[in-house]
Design a protein that fits this description.
Length: 219
């Protein structure tokens, strides 16, 4: 074939060789590009799967991490907004909220006794004065997220249950604990109130360790 091309077009063998090489490359390069794109897509899928999977499954480590975080979740700064009933709790002794305040249909109070009526954007000055932060509220009645009276195992399983945590994965369930200003308030609660036994950074680290080690729950 090359000789016929040379004969008809008066091309030298070197030029013919170059034409053949260019022609082959025009076929090979798209194949390589396709394979590269496919491999890249496969890599993204694999990386996504790794991100969703525990980084190191360790049931004992996960349980220990959750038990440490449990001391925060059941501290009054957390538990008072997650009571067993519809009345929020107050104080370090977790007594029922005065004025007969109740959860309401959206977790923000009932009738005229709305949370925002007393709980402003910041804590009011003075010991045991009404605390405040943006969007002060309880969980809504359809997703009550009760902490009061829960064992470590029961609370752990509740946090993992999409039917009770708003349809989240266990990683998504702790985003609220990591970023929500209402959670951060627990470490700046105003005069006259104690703070949880772990710092917020330590608490988040324990929760993430629980997730990364597989999310196993205490018995």
């Amino acid at each position: 074939m090359a000789s016929s091309i040379v004969h008809r077009q008066n091309l030298t063998p070197r030029v013919v060789k170059r034409i053949v090489v260019v022609g082959l490359l025009s076929l090979v390069v798209p194949i390589l590009q396709f394979n590269g794109t496919a491999n890249s897509a496969d890599s993204r899928v694999r990386n996504a799967n790794v991100a969703e999977a525990p980084s190191q499954k360790d049931d004992a480590g996960a349980r220990n991490a959750f038990l440490a975080a449990y001391t925060v979740l059941t501290h009054p700064r957390c538990m008072n907004c997650h009571p067993a009933g519809d009345i929020p709790l107050q104080g370090d002794d977790s007594h029922l909220h005065a004025q007969n305040v109740k959860r309401g249909p959206d977790g923000k109070g009932k009738y005229a006794l709305k949370c925002a009526s007393c709980h402003q954007e910041t804590n009011l000055p003075g010991a045991n004065m009404p605390p405040g932060v943006h969007n002060w509220h309880m969980p809504p009645p359809k997703m009550r997220m009760v902490f009061e009276g829960k064992s470590a195992g029961d609370l752990c399983r509740q946090l993992k249950d999409p039917r009770q945590n708003g349809g989240k994965t266990i990683a998504g369930a702790i985003e609220h604990l990591e970023a929500d200003p209402l959670v951060h308030w627990g470490w700046s609660p105003g005069d006259g109130r104690s703070v949880p036994p772990l710092s917020h950074a330590e608490f988040v680290q324990k929760m993430r360790a629980w997730v990364n080690k597989g999310g196993a729950c205490p018995d």
